[in-house]
Amino acid sequence: MTTPSISQQTMPGSRGEHDLQERYGNQKRAEGFYRNQMLSYLNPQMCTFIARQEMFFLSTADGHGECDVSFRAGETGFVNVLNEKLLVYPEYRGNGVTASLGNIVENPHAALLFVDFLRDKVGSEADPYGHRKPIRMP
Asked: Is residue 77 part of a domain?
């Protein structure tokens, strides 16, 4: 029994992504990623990870698609997870430009990138002998 393909209409991603996946023969690999590695909600591990963070990057774009990425920081836990689909954070007084909020007024799409440079790592880690070994996330 084969797993049915994700239809073009329900598959995440842009038309450009899908066109390139077809052009380069990556559809099955992309479908596996969409099916097995993407969620439309925050799972408990993500909520725990976010609760430990002291910073994130906020990406927005205005109504014309001009992009901006801004750094946000605060005390550990300054971003609160209200539920599996809703985060809140304080918007501190900055340089007065209000680029991010202005962009959100024009275009409500935004992305938050949380990076923990010290504790949580994804991918591979070198052992003391210089070999690389996979890391399992909890």
From this structure: yes
Same domain, 107 and 48: yes
86-88/80-83 β-pairing? antiparallel
The pLDDT mean for the chain works out to: 84
Convert 36-46 to b/e letters by CB count within 10 Å (16 or more is b): eeeeeebeeee
> What is the rounded distance in angstroms from the CA atom of residue 101 to the CA atom of residue 71?
13
Q: Which tens digit of pLDDT belongs to each residue from 31-87?
A: 999 988 889 999 999 999 999 999 999 999 999 999 999 999 999 999 999 999 999
Q: Which residues contact 73 (CB under 8 A, 6 or more apart)?
A: 54, 55
